[in-house]
Specification:
By secondary structure, this protein is an alpha/beta fold. Strands 1, 2, 3, 4, 5, 6, 7, 8 and 9 form a 9-stranded mixed β-sheet that branches. A hairpin with a 6-residue loop joins strand 4 and strand 5. The chain is elongated. About 30% of the residues are buried.
Length: about 190
């Protein structure tokens, strides 16, 4: 009797018919490194990127008006974008062939150079149609032996979203990452002696 009552009450409860959450990856499949004629014997350490407040979670951010940030409820990143950038950055520097090795933490402190990347902004913006994704990131190149900052620069990419939803935001984000890599990697390589 009790089981029948419980089963009946379960049938009467409101059912959650919302679609399951969809998680997305950052992925840059077709990054072409700049043509480099030399190979070196230096080791590059790529630090784990850091994200500014508001962009340090696995939620996909969007904005309909300046200074206001919202997040998709039914979609997200599979990890924080900053953490997903790490293997992409490592792979991008590896493909240049300039370094003896490209490592990421935890790695022994034998690196000659270190690259730090700060994710300043990553959001889909609906202030224009079609919407766009704005990716802003700062790169810093450090000499590990002298502890001097060799160079720092902010890069920004704005890419149109192919659709006005989270899937479009993801596609535009991947295009923005590819575009920024095409500028960040040559910037960092100028400090390789």
């Amino acid at each position: 009797m009790l089981l029948t009552a419980l089963a009946l009450s379960a049938c009467l409860l409101p059912q959650d018919k919302s679609p399951p959450r969809q998680d997305y990856l950052l992925e840059v499949a077709a990054f072409a490194p700049p043509p480099i004629q030399r190979t070196g014997n230096k080791i590059l350490l790529v630090a784990v990127p850091r994200a500014a407040p508001g962009f340090d979670s696995n939620r996909i951010a969007y904005s309909r008006e300046p200074l206001k940030l919202d997040y998709y409820n039914d979609s997200g990143w599979s990890d924080t974008p900053a953490k997903m950038l790490l293997p992409i950055l490592v792979r991008a520097f590896e493909t240049t062939g300039v370094f003896k090795a490209v490592v990421s933490p935890p790695a022994p402190g034998l690196a000659d150079l270190r690259v730090d990347v700060d994710l300043i902004r990553l959001q889909q913006e609906f202030m224009t149609q079609p919407s766009t994704v704005r990716l802003t990131a700062r790169i810093k190149v450090l000499d590990m032996k002298s502890r001097h900052v060799l160079g720092t620069q902010v890069f920004e990419a704005v890419e149109p979203a192919p659709s006005e939803n989270a899937h479009g935001a993801v596609q535009a984000t991947n295009a923005a990452v590819r575009k920024i890599l095409g500028e960040m990697v040559p910037f960092a390589l100028q400090y390789v002696g």
